[in-house]
């Protein structure tokens, strides 16, 4: 059984389409660290959730990365949406020459065990509620960061990405930035749930995770 840490039952339904194991919703309010990458946030949540669930967990973190703004808002997407709003994000992007963007999701998995080497990164840094300072991170990958002690829990990370463009808001469906994110000529807010799930960043991350998990 896999515990999907989320308050959104729709995410659990999406996960069951990729995973043979029973996926159950685990409602756990873990503290989110402030960090410049999704993997750091998701890994911290997965460790905290594993200790609370005492069983395998998956945690996801997602964000909108706008090319013209060097990937901002990224991990801060929810905060920017709440404080600025999606129409202002569009108006800020509109004058730029480059409207390219991407939605990204990182799935973090923790079961308390070590992982065999695969192309997907492993986060081994136990941050204890604090993000690494920029000088400490340097150019390190998640495999190269210094382990956070003997009790640090390794977390396996799987990223999904869908490219697109920032456009004027269109469509009545979806949520968040969906009305201003266009993929293949259609905004996410103009797609049905099935159409969106077929190309979604979360779905792509789940597919990678499911393939790896089935081979364990």
TrEMBL record:
Bias-annotated ranges (Basic and acidic residues): 121-138
TM regions (residue ranges): none
Keywords: Hydrolase
Region (Disordered) location: 117-145
InterPro entries assigned: ITPase-like_fam, RdgB/HAM1
Protein family membership: Belongs to the HAM1 NTPase family.
Protein name per UniProt: Non-canonical purine NTP pyrophosphatase
